Amino acid sequence: MLLEVKNLTVSYDTAMILNDVSVSVDKGELVSLVGPNGAGKSTFIRTITGLVRWERETLKGTRYGDITIEGTVRFNGEYIEKLPAHDIVNKGLSHCPERRRPFTEMSVYENLMAGAYLITDKKEMHNNLEAVYSIFPILKERSKQISGTLSGGEQQMLAIGRSLMVKPMLLCIDEPSTGLAPQIKQQVFDKIKEIQASGMTILLVEQDVSMTFAMADRNYILSHGKIVTEGTSAELLKDETVRQSYLGL
């Protein structure tokens, strides 16, 4: 098992965001975590990649209250729940954030180089850049363009490409379809499937159930901070209660 999260509970002051969540991802899989807005999906990704722990340390002693994190995160055979975010990236777990978040005043190339900030070998950096360009040729065409002038779809491809610059073992992608037109959304999802076909393991957090279930190997449904069920797309779509109560189908 590449990723094994057990009994993850996260509370912001007295508000419990995640409640005893357990998720696993095996090598080569594309696993989805779906659920409505406010279910805790982004908090889950931010916790396993070390960002919530960083947030807790940053806010400690301020008026924003305390953040409590419980449970274990095992990645590639090693427990990483106490590691800082940059060490987690070094272990091979990369995070593509929600709403893309490019450095808007920097060029496409500079954004990609920012994603490779932990790599010291220039040859490795060049090879990773060429691999990203092979998946997203539009980024090579736009390499000198200021990223803030890109379309939403191009910015999403840039965000994924930036996360791939460390050549991760597991890529976590948070809500890639947000704000995209249906045709552009399909292009982005096709690229995600292409990345998986190349051998990459992917954990995909998404609201668009139809498109996600069409490509995922397995799925977890998160609601009100808890995993309510899990299974293959076919298994979950057969359950009428799941379809109506959690998938909106």
Descriptive notes:
It is built from 11 helices and 10 strands. It has 249 residues and is α/β, with parallel strands linked by helices. It has one domain: Rossmann fold (3-Layer(aba) Sandwich). The strands form 2 sheets. The protein has a 6-stranded mixed sheet with strand order 6-7-8-3-9-10, with helices on both faces. A 4-stranded antiparallel sheet has the order 2-1-4-5. The radius of gyration is 18 Å and the shape is globular. The model has no long low-confidence stretch (mean pLDDT 92).
List keywords for this structure.
globular, 11 helices, six-stranded mixed sheet, four-stranded antiparallel sheet, Rossmann fold
SSE diagram, text form:
Elements: E1 3-12, E2 15-25, E3 30-34, H1 41-48, H2 51-59, E4 67-75, E5 78-79, H3 85-91, E6 93-96, H4 108-115, H5 122-135, H6 137-141, H7 152-164, E7 170-174, H8 182-197, E8 201-206, H9 209-213, E9 218-223, E10 226-231, H10 233-238, H11 240-247
Parallel strand pairs: 3-8, 3-9, 6-7, 7-8
Antiparallel strand pairs: 1-2, 1-4, 4-5, 9-10
Helix pairs in contact: 4-7
